[in-house]
Amino acid sequence: MTTLRGWSGSLRRGFMRSDQGSSLVELAISLGLFLVLVLGSMEFSLYFLAYNEVTDAARAATRWAAVRGSDSCANVPGLSGCNASASDVQTYVQSIGYPMLIPGNIQVATAWCQASTSIPVTWAACSSATGNEPGNQVQVSVSYGVPIFIPLLSNAVSLFTQTASINASSTSSMVVVQ
Description:
By secondary structure, the protein is α+β, with helices and mostly antiparallel strands. Helices cover about 50% and strands about 20% of the residues. It has a 4-stranded antiparallel beta sheet with strand order 2-1-3-4.
């Protein structure tokens, strides 16, 4: 009986001191963390690319609308889209063709702000109705829901936002020149 106890005690001590399998556990933990970092940086890069395209779309639409004010038809004969409205600006943004953005998912809001008569000039009373006279300000806001492609990350985001996307938005403003 004594030898059996001694044998089981030495077996337990030998098992507790063994390092077998610990490298596999360390590999699993470190590989999991590494994959989270790599996939997270890829997801951030895709979001940053989409954000840059949204920002560029807002700037391009603002420039497009600023040149196509109420006097643009008389000043530049043959100019397409002259006397632009909010729907014209949205159509223009959706026709630009950015590779990261799905045109139907781009949201565009356009507002024209009336110029004050005081100096320095300020702009107030913004509305979505066309007020595209020269001297007024046009503001274009572009937003886009960037989809999340990583399954675990999209599940975590959808717990808080009910969607598996992160909104990227940008606003640009410029004075209508013609």
